[in-house]
Amino acid sequence: MFVDMRLVAFALILQFNLIAAELLGTTFRRGSGISELNTCRVGVAELTFDYKMLGKSSYSKYWDAPCGYPPSTGSFLLCSYVISGNDSSIQPKLFKLFTERCNDYSSYDYPISYYEEQFKNATQNYVPLSQLNASLPIYSATLPNMKLLQKSYMDASTWFAVAVCGYFLLLIIISAVYNFSRRYGFTKRMNGSKVSKLFQKYLIFPTLLPNGKFSQTYGYSFFTMLFPNRIQFVTDLFLFGLQVAFYCAPYKYTIKGYWVVYVGYRSGIMSLGKIPLLVLFAGRNNFLLWITGWSYSTFLHFHKVVAAWMFIDALIHSVAYTIDYVGYYVSSLHYTYFACGVAATVLAGVLCLHSLHFFRRGFYEYFLAIHVVLAICFIAMVWHHCNVLGWMEWLVAACCVWFFDRLVRVIRMFAFGYQTSTITVVGDQLMKVEVPKPDWWSHAPGTYGFIYFAGIIFWENHPFTVVVENGKICAYIRVKMGVTSRIWNKLVKNNNRMNWRICIEGPYGGALAPMLKKYDDALFLAGGSGAPGILESATKATNGKLVWVAQNISFVTAYQTLITNISIPIDIYITRETSANRTFLKKEFLSDSEPDSQSTDGSDKEIGYKETENDVSQIHVRYCRPDISQIIDAEVRASAAKNVGIIACGPPVMMDNIRHVITDHVTDWNKSIDFFDEFQIW
């Protein structure tokens, strides 16, 4: 445990140090040499020189004259120096950067001393532009219209890209404050106030639409989509406002005929600035998950939203330059940077299109593999597009995030290794995977891991909630399509029990357990595949109640080990079987897990088992569909505590119903309420 966490911590610290170092060098820092050269390249390109390019480089059209024709070279370097405010400290940076670019992208390979000499000649032989006929070829070093270029130099395009990152930083800070307030019990007191309850009712708890869907999907048949909840939508709306404001902000470039280029320039930089965010929100090993308290599905929501805006930025950028390149668009495709830019925009569109929910839902393992491959190709294309133009720091930052996320994943996997697990059938379409727990494994209720099954496609992995039972990590898995179906078929052929080598990448999650402990009373709501995590959370509770919805009684008895450790009352609702409602002592229920299945009179029967000191909790079994609204309202009102934490995980319909009930009643309850949603979908 200690060694693994040291490696993870080291990787995370190194990752963010590198990112910070890269972003501190971004082009909004005037005086770096990059902004000066990029600004003057536009101005000098407007001048006409009597020069014929050598054409030995793919980029000769843009770099041969500035790098090899003295009047153009001198004008370029002199402009860069003047626009920096005649800052002599910038000269070494300018010469070094200019030499590197000329050697990489022009037909010339001059040393840095050559350009130092050209700059010296330009300062001595400079002729003002006002004394020249700009419509004719120029044969001496001069300066372009510096007044116009100064506006270009001060343009805020990169600041806009940074501002979007700053917006998400603000969200992270606000969420971190709220998260730690929950973790240390401060919100327990605040949530009882009228203002807090109004925020919960209208912003924090509800679905986007009144009585709408958040955990469920909208749509029909194959075409489905997920909607954000209301608080996510509000954050998305603010991002929309920022994007529109940045698109419409005044363009300070005033060189005649270049407006479309400036639109493309701004949108291109804004697109680049979102790439590190894209990778950041897609990563699993992110300490921001712990800091903010956001679920991984929330991170993926922001990943999708940022991806959509990045594509819109890139599309505007591409359309703008397509308009500007009318007449020589096809010939420009021979330039690597141009062709790669086109390819990057196309790949971004394909990535967004194939990420629609019905693709992810039906073919997740193939979607994920294709998505990663396309993303790598996209980064490669953007890399080759920008290595000529600049702003590489955004890509370096994105690659750092991606690399260290993968590094920590590999560390986790190597630490766990491939171990022999035992897989058994424990219920109808339900199997249990057990594997010895490593000593370093840090576990809390709600923990999940990504399980790799040896012999299946090597990259394929799926997230499952895991619990710890008798020193073993256990995952209860409902059989669905894909890998679980293939394993189930082999399991049935092996008399419902077999061994299989697995690797678990984790642990992840488990952050809600310490928050729930701060509440004097708790209501646990479990259903379907969400039962294990809620049951394990209930084992830590001393006050409260567990309400459990299951299709059949055999599904309940599959979790006997967890039930044994629960000391609070349990209400079980069986929805697809009929029998008499009964009340058990826990010990009796576990020893006789099959109630009378013939009786359907619906009466409550008390079983006269003698209570023992260590086994006094009761289990009520009812054969009907529960009225979730009535149950939650009654339990909260009946609680003697001044604060109640509600934690739930179950099928999507159940989760949306729970969210609606809490939203509708939170202002009616005269006690502090908090809701912990453990359901995740992406």
Automatic annotation (TrEMBL):
<keyword id="KW-0560">Oxidoreductase</keyword>
<dbReference type="GO" id="GO:0005886">
    <property type="term" value="C:plasma membrane"/>
</dbReference>
<feature type="signal peptide">
    <location>
        <begin position="1"/>
        <end position="21"/>
    </location>
</feature>
<dbReference type="InterPro" id="IPR013130">
    <property type="entry name" value="Fe3_Rdtase_TM_dom"/>
</dbReference>
<keyword id="KW-0812">Transmembrane</keyword>
<dbReference type="InterPro" id="IPR013112">
    <property type="entry name" value="FAD-bd_8"/>
</dbReference>
<dbReference type="Pfam" id="PF08030">
    <property type="entry name" value="NAD_binding_6"/>
</dbReference>
<feature type="transmembrane region" description="Helical">
    <location>
        <begin position="363"/>
        <end position="382"/>
    </location>
</feature>
<keyword id="KW-0472">Membrane</keyword>
<dbReference type="GO" id="GO:0006879">
    <property type="term" value="P:intracellular iron ion homeostasis"/>
</dbReference>
<keyword id="KW-0285">Flavoprotein</keyword>
<dbReference type="InterPro" id="IPR051410">
    <property type="entry name" value="Ferric/Cupric_Reductase"/>
</dbReference>
<feature type="domain" description="FAD-binding 8">
    <location>
        <begin position="417"/>
        <end position="509"/>
    </location>
</feature>
<feature type="transmembrane region" description="Helical">
    <location>
        <begin position="335"/>
        <end position="356"/>
    </location>
</feature>
<dbReference type="GO" id="GO:0015677">
    <property type="term" value="P:copper ion import"/>
</dbReference>
<keyword id="KW-0406">Ion transport</keyword>
<feature type="transmembrane region" description="Helical">
    <location>
        <begin position="159"/>
        <end position="180"/>
    </location>
</feature>
<dbReference type="GO" id="GO:0006826">
    <property type="term" value="P:iron ion transport"/>
</dbReference>
<dbReference type="InterPro" id="IPR039261">
    <property type="entry name" value="FNR_nucleotide-bd"/>
</dbReference>
<dbReference type="InterPro" id="IPR013121">
    <property type="entry name" value="Fe_red_NAD-bd_6"/>
</dbReference>
<protein>
    <recommendedName>
        <fullName>FAD-binding FR-type domain-containing protein</fullName>
    </recommendedName>
</protein>
<dbReference type="Pfam" id="PF01794">
    <property type="entry name" value="Ferric_reduct"/>
</dbReference>
<keyword id="KW-0249">Electron transport</keyword>
<feature type="domain" description="Ferric reductase NAD binding">
    <location>
        <begin position="520"/>
        <end position="661"/>
    </location>
</feature>
<feature type="transmembrane region" description="Helical">
    <location>
        <begin position="233"/>
        <end position="253"/>
    </location>
</feature>
<keyword id="KW-0813">Transport</keyword>
<dbReference type="GO" id="GO:0000293">
    <property type="term" value="F:ferric-chelate reductase activity"/>
</dbReference>
<keyword id="KW-0732">Signal</keyword>
<feature type="transmembrane region" description="Helical">
    <location>
        <begin position="259"/>
        <end position="281"/>
    </location>
</feature>
<dbReference type="Pfam" id="PF08022">
    <property type="entry name" value="FAD_binding_8"/>
</dbReference>
<keyword id="KW-0274">FAD</keyword>
<keyword id="KW-1133">Transmembrane helix</keyword>
<feature type="domain" description="Ferric oxidoreductase">
    <location>
        <begin position="267"/>
        <end position="382"/>
    </location>
</feature>
